Structures are given as C-alpha cells and as structure tokens.
Amino acid sequence: MIADLKPYPALKGSDDLRIGEIPEHWEIEPLCAIAKLKSVKNQYDRELLSVYLNLGVVPFASVKEKRTNVTSEDLSSYQAVDPGDFVLNNQQAWRGSVGVSMHKGIVSPAYLVLSLGPRISPRYANLLLRERSMVAQYLIASKGVGSIQRNLYWPHLKRIPIILPPFPEQAAIVRFLDHADRKIRRYIRAKQKLIKLLEEQKQAIIHRAVTRGLDPNVRLKASGVEWLGDVPEHWEVTRVKNEFFCLNRRRIPLSATERGAMTLRRYDYYGASGAIDKVAEYLFDDDLLLIAEDGANLVLRNLPLAIIARGKFWVNNHAHILKPKRGSLEYLAGVMECINYQPWISGAAQPKLTLDRLMSVTIAVAPPEEQEQIVKVQNEETGPLRAAIKQANREITLLREYRTRMIADLVTGKLDVREAASQLPDEVQGLPLIDELDEVNDPENDAVDDLDEAPEDSEP
C-alpha cells in the first residue's frame, strides 16, 4: 500500500533534533501558533463526550462498557467542545488520551480544550496530534512527581513544535490514509469473522465433551435442572461452591493512572475480560480460574467468561477468583464457560454476576480420572482451531502495527503521498478516520479501561 511511495525530493533540517528533517516546503510552528486555549462552561444542553486512549473524542453514551470513573452530577464546570477542537486529558495526555473532536458536546473540567486555527484541518490534526512522536512531546511537557501526579498545563504545552504541511497536502494525506484505512479495516473485519467462526467450532467441541463426555453411547440421567438437561448417569450433579474455593478477598483494583506510573511491567493484570495490562507486582502465584463479575460481556458473550490464569499475576475486582478443590482446572474451566449465566445475572444497564449467585449455580461434573481424558481428547481436537485463531489474531496485530507506522511516516513527512492521493477514487468522507467505535470491545484495544471522565482516576 505504501511500498510505491517515495521520499520527498527536497528536505531541510529542523532546529528540533527529535523531529529531524522535514520536506523543504513544510513548516514547524509552536502549538500556540495554530491553537488557542478555550474554556467555555455552563453548556447544559450539550451531550457528554469522552476522550479514549485509542479512540480519541467520542460520545460518552456510545460506549456501553463499564467506565473507570463516575461522572459528576454537576455539569456546570464541564467545558464546551465544538467540532474541530483539540481535547487533551491533562493527566493522561502523556499516554495518548487526546483527540480532535468531530462532535459538539462537553467534557470534564480535568481536560484541556483548544480551538484550532485555519492553518490545520481537523482531520489531519487528529492524525498528527495523536501520533506517537507527538504523544512523547506531551510527556516531556507534563510536570509533576512521577507519573501518577504528572499533569499537563497550557504554558508548557503551547511551546511544543508542530509539523505543518501546506493545507492542500494535509488533505492529500487524509485522503490517502482514509482510503488505506478502509482497506485495512475490511481485512481486520474479515479476520475477526474468521476468528468468531473458529471460536464457535472450538466451543462446540468443548461443550460436547464437558457436558456429555467422550462416549456417545453413555447412559444418561435427568439432572433435575431444566437448562442443564440430561447428563451422563455416573456424573455428579453438584454446585459451583462444592467444586471451588473463592479467593475474591485477595483481589485489589489498580487505576489506569497507578498502572501507568509503573516503570516495570512484567505480570498480567486481569479484569473481567482477561489480561488488560501489565503491572510491576503480582498478587497470585498459582493456577486459577477467573469468572467475569460484571460487564456487557456477561450477556453478549463476545469474549470468554471463564479464563485460566497461570503463574504470577494480578486481578482487579471485576473478576471472581476460583481455585478447584479437586479435579482438572482445564476441564472445570470448560464446564464454567458452557454455563448460561443469564438466570443469575442482575442489573440491566450494568450486568452483574454476584458471588452468591455464581456459587449457587448447578453443574454436572465427571469423575476426576475421566476429566483428564476429556481434556486430552478435546485439546487434540481443538488444536488446529486454536492454531488458526492464534495466526488470525497475529495478522490483526500486524495490520494495526502497519497502520500506525503508515500514519507516522506520512504526517512526519517521511513519504510523499501527493501523487498517489490524487489518483484515488472518490469515497464517502466525513466519517471517523482510523478509529471507530466498532473496535472498542476488541480484546486488543485497551481504550475502555483507560477512560477518564472526572479529575480523579478511580476504580469502582
């Protein structure tokens, strides 16, 4: 896609060694030359907006996943945002929590809102100002002790250098990246559909094995539970509390800011949807089963609900922590994943599976020796499917890395896109470029966990 692009024919040096050479006809300006600080309040009739780490500025109501903060009931101090304004979370800008808004609304008083001048287009600005080298500038401009207390203020921010191509060239860069992103997004969606089909096949194999065993001619008995149905005659019908110890009292939540402050990131940090970050320390050194406690995935089942965590790791308060009293962890994980939890879930806006309800669920369990045989056979049958899923996920990761590198090369003037952009077909314009809400719930995307709506970052 960018293999045929050439470098600019004439370059010039810049006074900033971090920027290096840029095209001869491009300019470098301080941010204050193209942006002004804006603070308009008492706009109660506007919708609430959020700044996501990986998505930029989006409507608060458009994301249904659990937020890490509670929005204030008093919106009088919230700041007005208009389309084309540049919004930064002053405590999280150094991590990339910034974006140019395409929406009219209000944002937290903890944010900085800048109005952009006519020399930079909003869509190009959204690409440039969220590019990794720009995020590094926000880190340098932020002040404070460590990362937890690191804040960004306009007097420091306004001096950071901005690479500014001519306005027509900004449009060419946006046009090319818009076209490229549509192709990349189609590839990613195709891979995601493939993964979904493979996961369904894998889960069907596991479900059959952990609910009926390996013998198709086994004699069955009524479980006495409508949703569970008939089970092998020699299996025990019991409850979750009889098969597991609960270790919930040992879990500790860490806010996004606390995690971001850690210089060492060695151990997985688990939430309701699996590992969502890396942290410096660990709470557990064991092989355990994690069951989602809350979140839309309890109902939607887009991601696994029963997750095996091995070795050293940390768990927040959005996952129940279970340790088998007996039997195979892999087998019991399959049993727990196959349960329809709908009858035990409470809450409509925010689904929740309480510990008492989880431990009361009825399950059918094979004898320990049979469990091991079931795990062995199901692993053999699902092996090719798991390999294909891993490969597809790897390809999605590479596509996203390619997209990130392409943006960086174009907005920093490493490649000349003018001729290629002029030859592209006309496409629908005005849609969000590069990031859309359909990727919010992707397991590769940590944006949901890093939403900051209020001045203080806290975990519920």
Radius of gyration: 26 Å
Mean pLDDT score: 86
List low-pLDDT spans: 430-460
Q: State the total count of DSSP E strands.
A: 24
Report how far apart the termini are: 44 Å
| Assembly form of the protein | single chain
The strands making up the biggest β-sheet line up spatially as 4-11-8-9
Helix content, binned percent: 25-40%
Q: How much strand content do the residues show?
A: 15-25%
Number of helices: 11
The assigned structural class equals: alpha+beta
Q: How would you characterize the largest beta sheet? A: 4 strands, antiparallel
Based on Cα principal axes, name the global outline. Answer: elongated
Structure description:
The protein has helices at residues 122-128, 132-141, 154-157, 167-212, 240-243, 256-260, 297-300, 329-338, 355-360, 368-411, 418-422, and strands spanning 11-12, 22-23, 27-30, 35-38, 47-52, 56-59, 79-81, 85-89, 98-100, 105-107, 111-116, 161-164, 220-222, 230-232, 236-239, 244-246, 267-271, 274-279, 284-285, 288-292, 306-309, 312-315, 319-324, 362-365. By secondary structure, the chain is α+β, with helices and mostly antiparallel strands. The protein has a four-stranded antiparallel sheet with strand order 4-11-8-9. Strands 6-5-10-7 form a four-stranded mixed sheet, with no helix packed on it. A four-stranded antiparallel sheet has the order 16-23-20-21. Helix 4 (167-212) packs across helix 8 and helix 4 (167-212) packs antiparallel against helix 10 (368-411). The chain is elongated. The relative contact order is 0.17.
